[in-house]
Amino acid sequence: MPLPDPFRRPDLLRLPYDDYRALPAVANSDLSRLRDALNGRYQKPSSASGALGLGTAFHTALLEPELYEPGLPGINDTLIWWMVDGVKQDPYLNELLLNGTPEPSCIFTEPTTSTVCKLRADLVAPNTDRGYTIIDFKTTMARDYNHFLAQCSGYDYDRQAAFYLDALQADRFLLVGVQKVEPFSLFTVEVPLTMLEEGRAKYLRLLRLLLPEAEVPTYMSEAVRELREGLTG
Prior knowledge:
Elements: H1 17-22, H2 28-38, H3 54-63, H4 77-88, H5 91-99, E1 101-102, E2 105-110, E3 115-120, E4 123-125, E5 133-140, H6 145-154, H7 157-168, E6 172-179, E7 186-190, H8 193-208, H9 221-232
Parallel strand pairs: 5-6
Antiparallel strand pairs: 1-4, 2-3, 4-5, 6-7
């Protein structure tokens, strides 16, 4: 009789974005709010109203094109589709898009802190020649590959990569930078072990701030309180 797999991956859920947002669990975006509070620049979450961002429009066009709405204020539709076509012209990335699952969500318990967490990946491709792969697309103004690589740590993409990879027990995490200005180059980074270790330290540090016994600096207390209240209702 086979033994149960101790590393069973959480189920990938196909949820509307609003339903995902409503899940009472800690997301990577919540960790960014705590990071901002830790750095003294906390702001209360704003509403989702307002002009659609270029990054959101690009992700919709690339991953859920049936939901893309042309002609929205502030969005250059031609630019969006140039960027999408640029990704699809890369044979390997196009294969991942064709065979992967776009915008899957999952809910899981982070084992070190026993915190209930959630994530919504751009793309997950379980059956690749390199194993279980998570792919995340980032619009960027980076000048070249090395510039984008430097941004991965500065923008805490390393934290996101470790958070997602650990949750899904994935084999690798690909960050794909998509230039939003000419020449619209692509920069594909397979996140290395050293970067994952740094990202893991980042997310664990932030999750520990949410523990009931955590000693939280006074200037962070509002951010921690609001996040805890949001999770408990």
